[in-house]
Description:
2 copies of one chain form a homodimer. The first copy, chain A, has helices at about 10-20, 25-35, 40-45, 50-60, 85, 90-105; strands at about 65-70, 80, 110-115, 120, 140-145. Chain A contains 6 helices and 5 strands. The first copy, chain A, has a single domain (about 10-140), classed as Orthogonal Bundle (Arc Repressor Mutant, subunit A), CATH 1.10.10. The first copy, chain A, is about 40% helix and about 15% strand. The two termini of chain A are about 35 Å apart. By secondary structure, chain A is an alpha+beta fold. In chain A, strands 1-2 form a two-stranded antiparallel sheet. Chains A and B meet through α1, α2, α6, β3 and β4 of A and α1, α2, α6, β3 and β4 of B.
Amino acid sequence: MKHKSNESSTCPVARSLDVVGQWWSLLIVRDAMLGVKRFSEFERRLGMAKNILTVRLKKLVEEGILRVVPASDGSAYREYELTRKGEDLLPVMVALRQWGDRYLFRKGEEHSLLLDSRDHKPLETMTVRSEDGRVLGVHDLEMEIVKTS
Amino acid sequence: MKHKSNESSTCPVARSLDVVGQWWSLLIVRDAMLGVKRFSEFERRLGMAKNILTVRLKKLVEEGILRVVPASDGSAYREYELTRKGEDLLPVMVALRQWGDRYLFRKGEEHSLLLDSRDHKPLETMTVRSEDGRVLGVHDLEMEIVKTS
C-alpha cells in the first residue's frame, strides 16, 4: 500500500521514513556503504529484478542519497556512490544493526559484525544521550515544536 | 511488493529491516514512545484504516515489540505498550530523526524537536564511535562474519 506522504509532517521521523522507510532503500544504502558501486553487483547481492532495481536506484539518486559517477576504472560503466547525505545515514544503519544483533540472532548463528578498521574491534554500542552525556531512555524525553533555523 | 525474507541472512541490518523495515512499523513505535497506548489514538494520529492498523499492531505484538496490557484506568480498553525490545529501538528512532532534521527541513519550517526532559535541552548528535571513542565514518569500517555467543 502506498502510504500517505509525510512530506509536510513536522516530525523528522515521519519525513525520514518517507525517504528511507522501505526496506530496500536501506539495503541498497548498506551495500553502497560496503563499497558496492555497480548495477550488476547490487543486482546480484540484493536479488532484485533489473527493472525494479533501476527504479529504486533512480529514486535514491533523486533523493540525493546516491549519485552517478563515471566508472573508477575508466570503463564505460556507470557507478553509484553515496553522497554526504547518504553517508550520513551511517548512525541509522549502525543503530539498526546493533538492535538486530541483540534481538534477532540465536546463539551460535553466524552474523556479520562491523569493526573499526584501524583496531579491528567492535564499535561502541550506540546510545541516546543528553548534551552532558547522560544515557537517556524513552521515559527521559519530551518534545516541542520549533522552527528550523 | 513482498520482499524476499531476510530471516536467515547473516546481516543484522537485513534481519532488522525484515521486522521494522516498513515505514508504518517505526511510525507506530514512534507514537508508542510518545505515550500513545490505545487503538483509537493510534488510528487518529496515523490516519490508517482500522483493519490495516489491526493487522499492523498484531504483527508488532507477534514480533515482541509491543505487548497488550489492561487499560491503566481500569476500563475495559486494551492498551499497547512497548516491550524492552521495542524500547531498544530508541537509538534507531533518534538517528532517523536527526538525519531528517539535518536534510529534510527548509529554513523556517516547523519541526518537532526531542529534548532531554530533565534539562529541556536538545540531545547529543548520535555518531558511530570506536570502542575508544573515535568518531567513525563509512570508510573507517570493516566487516567480518562471527558466531553469536
